[in-house]
Amino acid sequence: MKCIAGLMLVALWGWTGCASRPNGEEAPTTSTRGSAPIPSVTATASAVAVTPAPTASVVSSPSIEPARTITLPMKGRPSYAAHCRPPASSANKKDLVAVTPADDGKTSIYELDLEGDRAAAVAELPVSAHALAFSADCSHLLTGHSASGDHRATLFQLRRNGEKLVPQKAAQFGPYPLPVLGIALDFATGRVAIGTNSGSMQLYDVRSGAARELGSDPGPKDREPAMTATFQKDQLFVGYFRGRVRAFRAKKKLELDTDSVVTAGPNREKGFVNLETGEIVVPGGSRIWSIESLSDGLLILDERGSVTKCDTSGQTHELVSGLVNPSKMAVSPGGSYIAVAGGPGSVWRLGEKAQNIADLNGFDRVGTYDAATGISFADDKTVLVVGFLSPTVRVYRLP
């Protein structure tokens, strides 16, 4: 396995899920979970073979009901969501959640009162976004959107005007030949990364107030979609449809550093769940679902049901195994916990082996599935879950 800038990468099996979504996400199923030993890894220059870890024992953990359920003032069910908590220095302290309804309606931003069980609509965007990413200070929102075959991305600045936010276009990206999927925003350095359904990646600088392209990459030869992306210092990490993770040098230009692929694993002919019949009807089985940045490495959530840490010492640790169809992952602000949506929701304390400290009850049910549109941390002890069928935000308080 190749080590880059102190980071050792292993590409695992990621997934996506829901019928109406460009990336074909599916509702997660109930799972058995547990901590697992470090897997045995062998590598060539361009491929990584992972020997599955021994079956882990199930860890008993308390089940937590939502402490509060906040109803969003919107019509229909949520389809895409992103959350942001303003920094302590911000004049406004309320959490924001951006939600796109399933009927392709306009994306709206809601302000949450986590103690008063209330949500207020504070902005409506002129787009129906299927990719969403806030800046760390909540001042900007990056969106990927399509309309009548026109696939673009837009960065909006969110200006406060009394109790409302006024979205103003800060930069426009595209058009692209296929829909935008994996996006990343590091507004502190002015960098924006746009990944598409063809697997292409574009890197931009927006510090001048307009989008200046720094570089592009056409993507893997088999045109697998770029599912998720994240910046870490001067690098950009991208997870793909068929289990590939690529690392790019992404400071002043975009240069491929490492391309790692799991050489064996499942690949279903059918993948997403029809919400009416329960039938699995879209290809899948080997998708990277989430890559999250830590101070000492990366966390990768994969469709195989594992969370793997790639740390700066050059070690790769499988922290969690046994998740069945996980759909989303979030890292707590302090980097000590992760929350995973899917099979059902669960919270883990990070360490040499992750400890399952709580299961999250009360998710929307789709047949036998526990489903969520988004999961995030408001603080180290508060988890927010955006509903899948219901326009709600469930608030969980951790022990």
Present the secondary structure layout.
Blueprint: E1 3-4, E2 7-8, E3 40-43, E4 48-51, E5 63-64, E6 68-71, E7 78-84, E8 95-101, E9 108-113, E10 118-124, E11 129-134, E12 140-147, E13 150-161, E14 164-176, E15 180-186, E16 191-196, E17 201-205, E18 212-217, E19 226-232, E20 235-240, E21 244-250, E22 254-261, E23 288-294, E24 297-302, E25 307-311, E26 316-320, E27 328-331, E28 337-341, E29 345-349, E30 355-360, E31 364-366, E32 369-371, E33 374-379, E34 382-386, E35 392-397
**Might you state the CATH topology name?**
Methylamine Dehydrogenase, Chain H
Strand order of the largest sheet: 5-30-29-28-27
The helical percent reads: under 10%
Shape: globular
CATH class: Mainly Beta
Mean pLDDT: 81
Q: Beta-strand percentage?
A: over 45%
Distance between the termini: 38 Å
Strand tally, please?
A: 35
Tell me about the biggest sheet? 5 strands, mixed
Q: Low-confidence stretches at least 5 residues in length (pLDDT < 50)?
A: 1-59
CATH architect. name: 7 Propeller
* Name of the CATH homologous superfamily: YVTN repeat-like/Quinoprotein amine dehydrogenase
User: What is Rg?
Assistant: 19 Å
